[in-house]
Automatic annotation (TrEMBL):
It is found in: Nucleus. It comes from Charadrius vociferus. Residues 60-85, 426-486 are annotated as: Disordered. Residues 452-469 have a biased composition (Acidic residues). This is RING-type E3 ubiquitin transferase. Residues 3-37 form the SAP domain. Residues 305-386 form the SP-RING-type domain. Its EC number is 2.3.2.27. One of its GO terms (biological process) is protein sumoylation.
Length: 486
């Protein structure tokens, strides 16, 4: 608090006293001084700070004890001190509602985001890396939200300032959409758990205020199933559009519900990526060479000594299971056990809107950093344009599956056989009028009575799932044509 009240000349004297650089703008001098207080506040340094402070306010303290510089405020006025982290590029100040014991400033955090810095190394809260956010700077390490009372609704404020370099990065970044910059200051919240990197998780009654405005926080996905609670996407909260992009300090207040679980918050300068950018990065560094993919195919089809059935091949569809369209960029996770691919273009677009990162083939996790583009299937797609399915063989080669589709689109051979002379006189007379006028029905009944034809019909129905219409109707039309031909 003493340091925050210093003028430029006082800051220069203090920094000169400890041999630090005295050049720069005021907010840069304040940053160095706060770092000094936080990490190197020896008795001599504290004595110098107190001396400079008392000299500055000597005239006001001639009659009584030195008044506080914020004496004109109410007793509940908020006082500010530093929580500067070593190695960071920005000084951060925190707000407290308690009176400050100046000799105890060194190594203590007093506000709602506060905690005692560890004397020995201990695990810290870490947040998972998000593919669509590239971290440029850590403005505030994940810091626990500490309740200040027994009330269910808590407020935890903090103050920080951006450096000129960070402001420049934001101002010069492109717009993802009108008013939304790609370089952003985001707030991330997670459970206070050091056992593993944590996913974003909002506390109950979450609200975030930047300076004088409330930020938009993602709402709940509606649930149409009875008894199923709606889910809420917990994403980084963009604070940029309400921040002062200058040397001025920004005040952020997190309102949260205290219901027993502990949460931590962190502030980051990030660059938000688009699905097109992630696709280009994947094409650059994530392509698996065709020969490696071929070796994987041979390994998958290698005969298992414990198995009585030898695998001669495996079929792979060239249609994406996500959008039922032909694959353009065949992709899968290296952790997946299957050879079937999905389209990277649509997979990234879907996760950009609603991030789940689950494989659409096996429903297992398929995170971005595990994705590969199948070089062999990419090559096959260019060489095989008239088939929607291929089969991998044991030697790593492949062949297109066309025969079944072609057969299903032409007059069926079994029908022609049924129209031959050995149908025991059940065909109608040449004039097409059978006995009792039921010629067509007789033919259909004959087809249904043949066990071999019934099996073929069932197979044809399965094969025709992707064709234009159900096979039984097409079969019937061919039968009628055969009758009139006789």
């Amino acid at each position: 608090n003493m340091v925050m009240s210093f003028r430029v000349s006082d800051l220069q004297m203090l920094l000169g006293f400890v041999g630090r650089s005295k050049s720069g703008l005021k907010h840069e001098l304040v940053t160095r001084a706060l770092q000094l207080v936080q990490f190197d506040c020896s008795p001599e340094v504290f004595k110098k700070i107190k001396e400079l402070y008392e000299t500055r306010y000597a005239k006001k303290s001639s009659e009584v004890a030195p008044p506080q510089p914020q004496q004109h405020r109410s007793p509940e006025a908020l006082s500010i001190h530093s929580s500067y982290d070593r190695g960071s590029t920005v000084a951060r100040t925190s707000i407290s509602t308690t009176n400050i014991d100046y000799p105890a400033l060194y190594g203590k955090y007093l506000n709602g985001l506060g905690r005692l810095p560890p004397k020995v190394a201990k695990p810290e809260v870490r947040l998972v890396k998000l593919p669509f956010y590239t971290t440029l700077d850590e403005l505030l390490k994940p810091t626990e939200l500490v309740p200040q009372s027994n009330e269910k609704l808590q407020e935890s404020p903090c103050i920080f300032a951006l450096t000129p370099r960070q402001v420049e990065l934001i101002r010069n970044s492109k717009e993802l959409q009108p008013g939304v910059k790609s370089v952003q200051v985001v707030l991330r919240i997670c459970y206070t758990d050091t056992s593993s990197p944590q996913e974003d998780q909002y506390p109950p009654n979450i609200a975030v205020k930047v300076n004088h405005n409330y930020c938009s926080v993602p709402g709940y996905y509606p649930s149409n199933k009875p008894g199923v609670e709606p889910k809420r996407p917990c994403r980084p909260i963009n604070l940029t559009h309400f921040m002062y992009l200058s040397a001025a300090t920004n005040r952020i207040t997190v309102t949260w519900g205290n219901y027993g679980k502990s949460y931590s918050v962190g502030l980051y300068l990030v660059r938000q990526m688009t699905s097109a950018e992630l696709l280009q990065r994947l094409k650059t560094i994530g392509v698996k060479h065709p020969e490696l993919c071929k070796a994987l195919v041979k390994e998958k089809l290698r005969l298992d000594p414990d198995s009585e059935i030898a695998t001669t091949g495996v079929r792979v569809s060239l249609i994406c299971p996500l959008v039922k369209m032909r694959l353009s960029v065949p992709c899968r996770a290296e952790t997946c056990a299957h050879l079937q691919c999905f389209d990277a273009v649509f997979y990234l677009q879907m996760n950009e809107k609603k991030p789940t990162w689950m494989c659409p083939v096996c429903d297992k996790p398929a995170p971005y950093d595990q994705l590969i583009i199948d070089g062999l299937l990419s090559k096959i797609l260019t060489e095989c344009e008239d088939a929607d399915e291929i089969e991998y063989l044991v030697d790593g080669s492949w062949c297109p599956i066309r025969a079944e589709k072609e057969r299903s689109c032409s007059p069926q051979c079994p029908i022609l056989v049924l129209g031959s002379s050995d149908v025991n006189g059940l065909l109608p007379t040449p004039n097409g009028n059978g006995e009792n006028g039921k010629a067509t029905a007789d033919v259909v009944d004959l087809t249904l009575d043949s066990s071999s034809s019934e099996e073929e019909e069932e197979e044809d129905e399965e094969e025709d799932d992707d064709d234009e219409g159900p096979q039984p109707k097409r079969r019937c039309s061919y039968e009628k044509g055969l009758v009139s031909a006789c």
